[in-house]
Write a structure and sequence with these properties.
The complex is a heterodimer of chains A (about 325) and B (about 700).
Chain A (H helix, E strand, L loop, with lengths): L1 H29 L4 H5 L5 H11 L5 H13 L5 E2 L4 E2 H36 L4 H15 L2 H15 L13 H6 L1 H31 L2 H8 L4 H23 L1 H14 L5 H10 L3 H29 L6
Antiparallel strand pairs in A: 1-2
Chain B lengths: L4 E11 L4 E12 L4 E5 L6 H9 L6 E10 L2 E2 L5 H7 L4 E4 L3 H4 L6 H13 L3 H14 L5 H4 L9 H13 L5 E5 L7 H18 L2 E6 L2 H7 L2 E6 L2 E7 H6 L4 H9 L39 H5 L5 E2 L4 H4 L9 E2 L28 E16 L5 E17 L3 E5 L6 H9 L6 E6 L2 E2 L5 H10 E4 L13 H12 L4 H14 L16 H13 L5 E5 L7 H18 L2 E6 L2 H7 L2 E6 L2 E7 H6 L4 H9 L5 H6 L30 H5 L4 E5 L2 E4 L25
Parallel strand pairs in B: 3-8, 3-9, 6-7, 7-8, 15-20, 15-21, 18-19, 19-20
Antiparallel strand pairs in B: 1-2, 1-4, 4-5, 9-10, 10-12, 11-12, 13-14, 13-16, 16-17, 21-22, 22-24, 23-24
Helix pairs in contact in B: 4-5, 4-7, 5-7, 7-8, 18-19
Classes of the chains: A mainly alpha (about 325), B alpha/beta (about 700).
Amino acid sequence: MTAYILKRIVSAILVTIGVTIVTYLLLHIISPSPGRAVLGLHASQKAVRSWNKTHGYDRPIVVQFAAYFWKLLHGNFGYSYKEDQTVAALLAENVGRSAYLSGASLTLAIVVAMPVGIWQAIRRNKPSDYVLTGAAFTLYSMPSFFLGLLLIQAFALSLHWFPVEAAQQTGILQVIGNIRAMALPIITLAAVSMAAYSRYMRSAALDNLAQDYIRLARAKGLPERTVYLRHLLRNSILPMVTLIGLSIPALLAGNIIVETLFNYPGLGLLFITALQNYDYPVLLALTLIGAMATVVGNLLADVALTVADPRIRL
Amino acid sequence: MPPVLEVSHLSTHIQLTKTVVQAVGDVSFHLDAGETLGLVGESGCGKSMTGLSIMGLLPNGGHVVGGSIKLEGRELVGMPGAELRSIRGNDVAMIFQDSASSLNPTKTVGDQVAEPVMLHRGAGRKEAHDRAVEVLTLVGIPRPKERLGDYPHQLSGGLRQRVMIAIALSCDPKVLIADEPTTALDVTIQAQILALLDDLKTQLGMSVLLVTHDMGVVAGRADRVNVMYAGRVVETAATDELFHSMHHPYTQGLLASIPRLDQDNRRRLYSIPGAPPDLTSPPPGCRYAPRCPYADEKCQAEEPTLVEGGPDFTRNGAGGSAPGHAFACWHPVAGPVVLEAGEDQGGSEGPGQGDALLEVDHVVKEFPVTAGAILQRKVGAVKAVSGVSVRVGRGEIYGLVGESGCGKTTLGKVIVGLETPSAGKVRLLGRDVFAARGRELRKARRDLQMMFQDPYSSLDPRMRVGSILREPLAIQGVGTRQEQDRIIADMLREVGLPANATERYPHEFSGGQRQRIGLARALTLEPKVVVADEPVSALDVSIRSQVLNLMRRLQRAHGQSYVVISHDLAVVKYLSDRIGVMYLGKLVEEGSGDDIYHRAAHPYTAALIDTIPLPDPGKERAKTEVGIRGELPSPINPPSGCRFRTRCPRAEQRCADEEPQLAAFGAGHVAACHFPLQEPLEVASAGRGASGHAGSS
C-alpha cells in the first residue's frame, strides 16, 4: 500500500514536471519575453532589449527554464508585471475562494446525484425515472454559462431571492457565511456534474441490482430498504469514486465560466483576466495548478477505491 | 404427517415488454419432512422459477398467477410482504448456483452470515457472530473464527459455497431450496458439497428441494424426483423407480442423452431432436409432442395431465407403475431406452502412431507474479503447465481432462498458438510452430483452430454469421468471394444450420446452434488440428448430445485430429481415442478410454472417476467415500514431488521427496505415481522420463 502510494507520487511528480516543460515551451513560443508588454507598445527596440537583458530574458531557453523551475521548487511562481504582484501572492489570495466554490459544488453534486441515481435504478422505467432522466439530460446538455444566465434571470432578477453577484468579501469565512450570494454559483457549477453523476450512479446501481448477491440478500428476508442501504449502496458507489477523481479538471474549467459569470474573484476569474492581459506568468502558474489538481485527483481516487473496495489491495 | 411444503397447481408468468413467458404451469408437488425432492430439467424448464416462486423472489415482471404454496399449512401466495419476509431466510432458505456472485463482495463473511440471525432472531452483533462461527463450523469450514473477517474473494469456490450454505442454515430453516448448488464447482468439490448437504439434512431434520439439471446429482441424493419440461412436471416418482422404469418419453430421452462412462463410444449418442418450445406461446397439446418420437394427433391436440399411473389408464393399465409414480403422457414408454437405435459409427482409426501429427514436447507455461512498487520484481510464477508432453496422431481425438486450474485450457491455448510456451516445443508435422514468423506463422495458424466453450461470448454479436465464417477465410486469403460463399454454405449444411443463417446475427440462435457456428468457424479452414475447449459444457443435456454426435460425425468425415478439453470425463471418454488426465500442471495419466476408466493406475484418476455423479441411483448410493479430500493447492507453490500427494490417500514420504515419472501400464497406458493402483509393466520404463509418449513402447 505505502509502496503503491510512493510509486504513484513519483509518477505524479514526473507528470507535473512534464506538463511544466511543455506549457513553458508553448508560452515561450507565443511570447518569448514580457518586455514589450511591460514597457508598452511605444517603447524602443533598444529599451526592450535592455529590459530583457536585465531580467534575464536574453538567455538560452534551457537556462531560462532551469531558472524558472528552480524558483518553482521554492514556491516562487514568478512575477506578474500586469498586477505588479508576485504570482504566489495572487494565487494565495484567490485559491481559497475557488476551492470553496469547487468543493461545495462537488459535494452538492454527489449528495444529490447518489440518492437520485439509486432511486432511479430502483424505479427504473417508471414515470419518475423518465422525468429524472429527462432532467439529467437537459442539465447535462446545457452550457453552464447559459444555465447560469437562466438562474440569474429567474431567481435574481425576477424573484429577487438571490443576489446577481456572488459574494464579494475577501475573507473566506465571510464568503462561506454568505450562503444566499453563493447559492446560484454553486448550483450552476454543480448542475452538470450532478447530471453526469446521477446517470453513472443509475447504471452502476442497475448493474448491481441484477447481481446475485442482491437476490441472496432478499432471500435472507431483509426488507427492501435494508437491501438497498446495506448491500446496494456501497457496491454502486465504487465506480463513482474513480469518476469523481477524474472530473476534478472539469470542475476547474467550470470555475472559469461560473466565476466570470457571477463576478466571483477566484482562480477562474484570475485566469480570464490574465488571458486578456497577456499575463503569461499567471497563466503558466494556473495551468500547472490545473495539472497538479488532475494528478492529485486521480491519485486520491485510486487510494479511495482501495479503501472502499476490499477486493483491491495494493 | 402432513407435508412441510405443499405446492398445488402453481402457475408463474413473467411479463416481458410485449410478451408473457409462461414459465411455470400447473405444477403440483409436496415435500415431506426430512425428505430430499429433486427437481430436474433443462434450462428454461421452470425449475428455478418454481423455487423462486416459493421464496417470493421472482425476477422483475414475474408473478404467481395461480395455485397455492403452503408451508406447514400457511399459504405463501398472496401473503403480505412483511409476513413473507419473516419466513424467508428463516423457515425457508435458498442457496444459489454461483457463490462468487451471490456473496456481497464488500462485506465480510462474518457480517453476511450473521445478518439473518440478527434479522430473524433479534440477536445482537456479538451473539449473531457467535452463531455465525457455529454454522461455519457446521458446514465444515476450517478455523471459522479466522474466516469471519475475510471477504468472499479471499475464499476458494468450495469454501464460498459452504459460506452460502451457512447463511441459509443460520436460522435453522425447515425447508432448504438448493438451486444448482454445485453446478459451478469442480467434481471433487461437488462431491464434498453434496455429501455436506446430505449430512446437514439428516442432522438438522430439514427438507431439501434440490433443483438441478444434472441427473447424476439427483440420482444419489434425492428420495423422489420431479422431472420438469417446458414449465410442466411431466413425471414424478421415487428415485429408483424413475431411473429404472420411467414412463415419460422425455425422461427416457434425457437419460439416454447423457454420455456415460460405460458407454460404447463407437455408437452414436441418443439425442432428442429439436429444442424446447418457446414458452411465450407453448404448443397446445403435450409440450413435448414436437420432439417426441411417439407423438400422434392426440398428443398435439390434448394435453395429458400428471396422474398417478398415467392419464390414460385404459391404455397402459396402470399396472406397471409403483404408487406415487405419476406421469403426463398419452403413450408412456416402459423403462430406459434400449440403446440399439444408435448405429455403429465405426471405430476410430486408432492412435495413428508412427506419424504423429501434433507433438507437444515438454511444454511449460508459467505466468509471472510480480511485486514491488517501481521495479516490478518477479516474485513467483503461476505454474499453469509444468512440462507436459503429448502426441496426437493423424485423425486421432485426444481428450484432456482435469479440474479447473489443472492447466488443461492453458495447454490448449499453447497448442493453437494463443499462448507462447515458457519452455518446450509444439510441433505440427515435425515443424516447430513457435519458430515460425510472419507468413509462415499465419500458415501454421491455419492448421490449428480452436472451438470455444462459451457460445455466447465467443461470437462477435455485431457480426452476421456469414461474416463470422468468412473472416478466417479472408485472413488466410482462401479463394475468391464466390468460393468462400460456397465453402460457407457447405459448412453450414454440414453442421446442420439453414443456408440463410449467414444473414443472421448470433443472438438469433440458440446455444446449441451457436456452438454449431463455433464448430463451423473452426472447420472452415480445414485445419489439421482442432482444439475444442469445453465444447459442450455450456449446453443442456439434450442439445449436448446433438453437438457431440455432430463433432464425431464431422471428425470421421474430415479426418482431422481433435484435442478435446473438458472437466467432464464422460464427454471426453465418449469423444476420445486417448485421454490424458492433468493435475496441477502435470500429466498424471494417459491411456485409452478403457485404460482410464477400467484400469486407472493413478489414484487421482480413480478418485476423479469415482466422484463423477452417475445417473444411476444404485451406483451413486453405493459410493461410500467422498472421493478426494481438500482443495487444489496453489499453482504458485505446488507441492514438492508428486503434486497430488497432499490429497492422496496413498501418499508417503517418498511422494514428497521424489517426483514420480511416467511409467507404462500397458500398451499406450502411462501414469506417474510411486504407489500406483496397478502393477507397472516393466520397471525399466520408469526411467524414460516425463516425456513418455503413449503407445510408442
